[in-house]
Design a protein that fits this description.
The chain is built from 18 helices and 25 strands. The protein is about 30% helix and about 25% strand. The chain starts with a strand and ends with a strand. The strands form five sheets. Strands 1, 2, 3, 4, 5, 6, 7 and 8 form an eight-stranded antiparallel beta sheet that branches. It is an alpha+beta fold. It comes from Scleropages formosus. InterPro entries: CRAL-TRIO_dom, CRAL-TRIO_dom_sf, CRAL/TRIO_N_dom, CRAL/TRIO_N_dom_sf, GOLD_dom, GOLD_dom_sf, PRELI/MSF1_dom, SEC14/CRAL-TRIO_domain. This is SEC14 like lipid binding 1.
């Protein structure tokens, strides 16, 4: 497996020429890098006007590896070839290096670039990327990989310190300014070497889409805390710099920084909507211990979920019902000693049964989601106020009054569902959970709830029985005495409702709650459909004028499906609705419609106008089809049958896992379609940059896809669709 590394942009607040003078002091050897033993110049060439200077060195490294491994390998030192190309005119230095030792077994490739800061020509930027591919190494591939990554991470961390050390050394010697290169006026006819083309930064992960953009973000690292001009949202055109990461995201190791940058870059290249905030991406990486593949999977699922339920607009659109305002015993209350927002929940005083009976699970879930969204907003505010990264909050749960009434089965079921949704979509947002005055019934509730809580989250729980929270190691260790609520023995008034029993006159019937749940579920322009094995979902679109454009945007919420587009000159019979009950499944807002009669023959009664497209769970697909004939078009979402392995009769591991994920042979899609006149479609295309003519279907894991951008993917092709995988 190829290991990739991508650094953030590191900024030296010194002119490029001074940084280059400091960099040259690292050669032929550098005492600050013990493993860098020596270097020899293999070749050197400079243009006649001195604008470009290329030098190739052979560097000798003493790698810190076990002696036994060195003896097996038969080497004491490792040699690298490094080629530096300095362009004084453009004020850039490009560095390319690769290993000479064991080059047939191990491939190490590194690219570095020093350049002038795009917004301050007196500053210098540094960027690097690298890849490691171990093909074979005497059976010690894993050990060599760990050693290489450890050594590389260590050298990255020291890199900036070494340059800054030599910059201070120059300053102590009185060298504080080096003039810029200027062309020689005495030799106007001098022929200079052609400028070396800029080395592309190695993409952090192989993606078959457009190349990563190379522009640098306009993050002002000198802006004071609280400045509203500091960007907190990632954009497709920016890169992360090291100072920004430290200020807003915290101290990350070089490899953690690399994971963040690579995942962020992947989103920039595949997403059709806005890029999630850097803090949001980082939370998912932390939740999976910076395993990029696992983090990417759960992040894509969460983004699809956010789009489906329009969670990004929840704070603006959700109006808390009066019954929640009166009887939901929770609210925000100042912050803890670490600057984290503090949320207090008096669970023991809450009538969970009454709230569920009066509101239903869906409204209660929406309210909890709005609390989490507000928590994210408060974390951003506190990051500005306190001048340090704050990415999570503290929750204080008071259990005084908790009894068997709170173990009402539907109430516990609603609680478990809420926990499941929050765990999946708001990872690493809980910094600490303080549970106070836990009664004897609490172990029963904990036994029911704890299996649904992530192990890392459970480690953040602190439980106090009785009045233990008032002593040493209690509440005062985490919350300032001045803001401890009055009902916990403090002096601060807390504006959280006291709760009480919800009047039964406010209860609603199951039918009323079911209708309300459906209304909340379908509060979107998208429709939801279920797809079963042997029962695809089909949508009929009648086209009167040829050259009309059918556009679509759908998310695969569960399972894998195959998307098809068919054309027929005659109308199909009235649709058959496959009731979900026939499959033993109920789903609010879901439906299954079949249009193509079993007696129809492909090629006679109807024809396929696009190649079938296999879409994986979590993918978001946008596209358009320019119709060639009038008639009836059928969009079909069909259950994807896993192909059998050709080489053996035994099932593949991936096939087995995929089968397990699609329980009961059911898939689910959420879709939106629209038909545009040809003229309207061309006008829409003029509003965005043309993406060229495309006749192939591609695909996307994004969840923030926007139809308006996707439907501009072609201008002349008769049938074109666009997805970004």
């Amino acid at each position: 497996m190829v290991q990739k590394y991508q650094s953030p942009v590191r900024v030296y607040k010194k002119p490029f020429e001074l940084v280059m003078a400091a960099y040259e002091r690292r050669f032929p050897t550098c005492p600050l890098i013990p493993m860098f033993v020596d270097s020899d110049v293999l070749s050197e060439h400079q243009s006649e006007d001195g604008a470009t200077h290329c030098i190739e060195r052979r560097c000798k490294l003493d790698v810190d590896a076990p002696r036994l491994l060195k003896r097996i390998a038969g080497v004491d030192f490792v040699y690298f070839i490094q080629k530096n190309c300095l362009n004084r005119r453009e004020r850039t230095l490009h560095i390319e290096s690769h290993n000479e030792t064991f080059s047939n077994r191990v491939i190490i490739h590194e690219l570095c670039c020093y350049s002038v800061h795009p917004e301050n020509e007196e500053w210098t930027c540094f960027e690097q990327s690298a890849s490691l591919d171990i093909k074979s190494f005497f059976g010690f591939e894993s050990t060599v990989e760990k050693i290489a990554m450890k050594q590389y991470a260590s050298s990255i961390k020291k890199g900036k310190e070494i340059i800054e050390y030599y910059l201070r050394e120059l300053e102590e010697e009185g060298v504080t300014h080096i003039p810029r290169w200027t062309p020689s006026l005495a030799s106007p006819s001098v022929i200079s070497l052609p400028t070396r083309p800029e080395l592309p930064v190695t993409p952090a992960i192989a993606i078959p889409t457009a190349n990563a953009k190379d522009s640098l973000s306009s993050k002002d690292t000198t802006s004071p805390p609280g400045s509203s001009s500091e960007p907190l949202t990632g954009t497709p055109d920016d890169k992360l710099d090291a100072d920004y990461i430290k200020r807003y995201l915290g101290d990350l190791t070089p490899l953690q920084e690399s994971c963040l940058i690579r995942l962020r870059q992947w989103l920039q290249e595949t997403h059709k909507g806005k890029i999630p905030k850097d803090e949001h991406i980082l939370r998912f990486l932390r939740a999976r211990d910076f395993n990029m593949d696992k983090a990417r999977e759960i992040l894509c699922q969460s983004l699809t979920w956010r789009k489906q339920h329009q969670v990004d607009y929840l704070l603006e659109t959700w109006n808390s019902p009066q019954v929640l305002q009166d009887y939901y015993t929770g609210g925000w209350h100042h912050h803890d000693k670490d600057g984290r927002p503090l949320y207090i929940l008096r669970l023991g005083q809450m009538d969970t049964k009454g709230l569920v009976r009066a509101l239903g699970e869906e409204s209660l879930l929406r309210h909890v989601l709005s609390i989490n969204e507000e928590g994210l907003r408060r974390c951003e505010e506190n990051t500005k106020v306190f001048g340090r990264p704050i990415s999570c909050w503290t929750c204080l749960v008071d259990l005084e009054g908790l009894n068997m009434r709170h173990l009402w089965r539907p109430g516990v079921k609603a609680l478990l569902r809420i926990i499941e949704v929050v765990e999946a979509n708001y990872p690493e947002t809980l910094g600490r959970l303080l549970i106070l005055r836990a009664p004897r019934v609490f172990p029963v509730l904990w036994t029911l709830v704890s299996p649904f809580i992530d192990e890392n989250t459970r480690k953040k729980f602190l439980i106090y029985a009785g009045n233990d929270y008032q002593g040493p190691g209690g509440l005062v260790d985490y919350i300032d005495k001045e803001i401890i609520p009055d009902f916990l023995g403090g002096e601060c008034m807390c504006e959280i409702p006291e709760g009480g029993l919800v009047p039964k006159s406010m209860y609603r019937t199951p039918e009323e709650l079911e209708n309300e749940d459906i209304r909340l579920w379908t509060e979107t322009i998208y429709q939801s459909a279920s797809v079963f094995k042997g029962a695809p979902h089909e949508l009929l679109i009648e086209i009167i004028d040829a050259s009309s454009v059918i556009t679509w945007d759908f998310d695969v919420c569960k399972g894998d499906i195959v998307f098809n587009i068919f054309h027929s000159k005659r109308a199909p019979q009235p649709p058959k609705k496959d009731t979900l009950g026939a499959h033993g499944i109920t789903s609010p807002g879901g439906n299954n419609v079949q249009l193509i009669d079993k007696s129809w023959l492909l090629g006679q009664d109807y024809s396929m106008v696009e190649s079938p497209l296999t879409c994986k769970e979590g993918e978001s697909v946008q596209g358009s089809h320019i119709t060639r004939w009038p008639g009836f078009y059928i969009l079909q979402w069909k259950f994807h049958n896993m192909p059998a392995c050709a080489a053996t009769n035994l099932p593949r591991v991936d096939d087995v896992l995929a089968t397990l994920q699609v329980s009961s042979h059911k898939c689910k899609v959420m879709y939106y379609t629209e038909v545009l006149a040809s003229e309207d479609f061309r006008n829409a295309c003029c509003d965005v940059q043309s993406l060229g003519s495309m006749t192939s279907l591609e695909s996307s894991h994004s969840g923030f896809s926007q139809l308006s951008a996707a439907t501009t993917s072609s201008s002349q092709s008769q049938s074109s669709s666009m997805i970004s995988r």
